[in-house]
Amino acid sequence: MRFSVPGLALGFFLVVGQLLAQPATPLSRLRVQGNAFVTADGKPVVFQGLNASDPDKLEKSGHWDRSYFEEMKRWGATIVRFPVHPAAWRNRGKAQYLQLLDKGVAWAGELGLYVVIDWHTIGNLKNEMYQNPMYETTRRETFEFWRTIADHYKDNTTVGFFELFNEPTVMGGKLGTCSWAEWKALMEETITIIRANGGKAIPLVAGFNWAYDLRDVAGSPINAEGIGYVSHPYPMKREKPWEDKWTADWGFVAKKYPLILTEIGFCGPDDKGAHVPVISDESYGDAITRYCDANGISYIVWVFDPQWAPMLFTDWTYKPTRQGTYFKKALQQQATRR
Amino acid sequence: MRFSVPGLALGFFLVVGQLLAQPATPLSRLRVQGNAFVTADGKPVVFQGLNASDPDKLEKSGHWDRSYFEEMKRWGATIVRFPVHPAAWRNRGKAQYLQLLDKGVAWAGELGLYVVIDWHTIGNLKNEMYQNPMYETTRRETFEFWRTIADHYKDNTTVGFFELFNEPTVMGGKLGTCSWAEWKALMEETITIIRANGGKAIPLVAGFNWAYDLRDVAGSPINAEGIGYVSHPYPMKREKPWEDKWTADWGFVAKKYPLILTEIGFCGPDDKGAHVPVISDESYGDAITRYCDANGISYIVWVFDPQWAPMLFTDWTYKPTRQGTYFKKALQQQATRR
Amino acid sequence: MRFSVPGLALGFFLVVGQLLAQPATPLSRLRVQGNAFVTADGKPVVFQGLNASDPDKLEKSGHWDRSYFEEMKRWGATIVRFPVHPAAWRNRGKAQYLQLLDKGVAWAGELGLYVVIDWHTIGNLKNEMYQNPMYETTRRETFEFWRTIADHYKDNTTVGFFELFNEPTVMGGKLGTCSWAEWKALMEETITIIRANGGKAIPLVAGFNWAYDLRDVAGSPINAEGIGYVSHPYPMKREKPWEDKWTADWGFVAKKYPLILTEIGFCGPDDKGAHVPVISDESYGDAITRYCDANGISYIVWVFDPQWAPMLFTDWTYKPTRQGTYFKKALQQQATRR
Ligand SMILES: [Mg+2]
Ligand SMILES: [Mg+2]
Ligand SMILES: [Mg+2]
Ligand SMILES: [Mg+2]
Ligand SMILES: [Mg+2]
């Protein structure tokens, strides 16, 4: 026991911060029912949306503002994902990064967009080894991130999803080993922490191979109710035709659990930023959007930024790239059908 | 192998430091016999004492001096506990913090007071998550702390006890999970390290719920001889009447192992520093002191400081607070009975 | 996914760095065949060589140069070991330390000497506790070191061996516990990482008791093909006569796996740097070199430095010490028999 009287001030500040983070007209609290995401009144929702780039990157370049969200809304998005890089979180500092997130969550809420907060790392959390330095984190930092986020957004309904770990991968052993059982235990511990700290957003869990592979879910699902699963089925993860492979690798999950593809996207072989595994063409766009429509799967396109690839626009006039043209149309058509 | 000749100097310095730390007339070496702490000649001892605040805090405010120990002696204490906060240990530095401890141990020894060195953290050591930042530490730092302390005080008999980890808690899952088996393994590893480094003080082990709960000891005691158990039964951990609940939760341990309540205390609901779980009145003092007397249980009152709560005095004239008045009398009466 | 276009530059730089690290006339790629190290054409090789001191230490004192390698060659060495201290690796920085290694590997290759890169730490990697601060590292840093080294030297045939961890020890419990099964798992994870990152050098694995004891290999060998085992049989690890004890403790391994003693050496009781466990005389030199010859075991003498002990020369004229005189003759005789 150690109780210092002046210590009360901090708790008070945090409570006020949470109230300010809530929009004037809250969105309906999302939850899981069967294999669907549903609103408070039980109505199923399938999302189509856009990935922001890191709020830290956008703020530094002067683009973390309401107009960025208005443009995503105009493109037809109903959800937006915030990829929080561990290095950005550490370097900006917790309190300052939360202020960034609060602003983005407020703009999203005012425009009726749900938010996914994504701990944007790539690697093997068991060994704390990563694809490159900007993804470096620890188990402890990951747990503390979710402790903080769960507490901070506990009463905020705009933040509909917590994506626990962007892309798990051992890089073919370059980062050592991690079994599904070890990964599952890490995800279950994270969910325990989130919920004990009051977090009500839906936890989203990915599998290995850079969040592509969910086959282990068949025999050994995450031991927690009310969660969704994630895949990132970029075009080159499998050879065309994709559909049967997608069903075997991750699509089967959608029969039993809600599924959301938090990253999809493509660019042509000669486009700026072309790299494995994203090189393809509009036939990929057709295939993945039809597959999602047919199976009630949500998706979020990577990435609403003119520098990160595959990019959706070329400059800050929001001029669409090749995939930007494709997905702007796809999302707007979905929006008119709602 | 790498042996650098000038390296001999450091070892010499450490040996001299240890000799200086020993009082002129050493106290009798304590050990465990059955369910009792006993002196070298086998005489059982039950302690009543006081918690110092962190030596680092006392030194910074000019109160880490012999008169502080003389006052504790006048209040009737036979033991004093030093709560070493990990953040204070790190910030002051190992060598400088050891100098503080050496001074306090010397003053205590001269006055015939035994010392408990307490690694004063609160949280889940398995996940390295804590109640708040001042309690942050790692498994490695915890092991290294005890390696250092065990070696430094190996021949000092004033330091009768090493309290391995102040208050284990998962905070209802906010800090993730830790099973008793996992906790037990961490404590056993710590005891192995202490003893291999020559530490002869009695290791003290606490259980979950902020060191309140020892029920797991019944079926799965720590696998080590010569240790004691700890509880911190503040009044609001259970509803009055307490006695049967105390017996079920931790008191039963005293039939088989030595037991010491390294923190007890109360304050009135309107007193400065009142907070859960310490709010009560003198009936708590009566109950806990009688329970300890009846069962041969040692206790140490929290805290001999005018700012930390529940405080025992109001200012540096050592004017007793409400609980200070109560416990000063209780300890002095015990002292006259010795 | 996050792909930043300017990021290409770094990959290009690393590839160029690797090419420059390769000598003009490459040595034959070593591999394991049965219980022998063999060249690419299957010819068995038994090595006799010398331990450099830490390249960082040599560079700081102006001795990391081609003449140092020429002198080792003159003494009859066919292999040289580079003990990389974790603190030196961290303090100099990865890129700068790799430049040091590249120079040494190039000089060795030009002179026909194979190189062992040795992660020179002493302690319990499981608990991340060490004999003293210069040996401090973490599991993560150890894995990352080997990820870096494996990738950097993947096509370099001079670097014949990766010695994964110099001297594992729990120091009789002072560093806690580590079972052989726990140690084995750490070594297997390291080997997985090395090979997935393209490392083709032969991994060398030591056992507890400061790399002396390999008895656990009998019942529970490392689960990986193509590796060698290590012992450091300094004279005082066992009482003379040594031979039967050596066979029981580590020599038996040589019947089934390639074995290399990456540290041997002695000094007289009054020599500078004399310390446990290295004090002996020439009878130790006779015994260990004969034992190695009789059993096809490679060895590397500690240490080609005038300050670290047991030293092989007294000053930078390379004047041999007592053990220097002994081993210079032993190596040169071996060299004439080749
Ligand atoms: Mg307490
Ligand atoms: Mg993967
Ligand atoms: Mg050695
Ligand atoms: Mg607890
Ligand atoms: Mg991705």
UniProtKB/TrEMBL annotation, chains A, B, C:
<keyword id="KW-0326">Glycosidase</keyword>
<feature type="domain" description="Glycoside hydrolase family 5">
    <location>
        <begin position="38"/>
        <end position="305"/>
    </location>
</feature>
<dbReference type="InterPro" id="IPR001547">
    <property type="entry name" value="Glyco_hydro_5"/>
</dbReference>
<dbReference type="InterPro" id="IPR017853">
    <property type="entry name" value="GH"/>
</dbReference>
<dbReference type="Pfam" id="PF00150">
    <property type="entry name" value="Cellulase"/>
</dbReference>
<protein>
    <submittedName>
        <fullName>Glycoside hydrolase family 5 protein</fullName>
    </submittedName>
</protein>
<comment type="similarity">
    <text>Belongs to the glycosyl hydrolase 5 (cellulase A) family.</text>
</comment>
<dbReference type="GO" id="GO:0004553">
    <property type="term" value="F:hydrolase activity, hydrolyzing O-glycosyl compounds"/>
</dbReference>
<dbReference type="GO" id="GO:0009251">
    <property type="term" value="P:glucan catabolic process"/>
</dbReference>
<keyword id="KW-0378">Hydrolase</keyword>
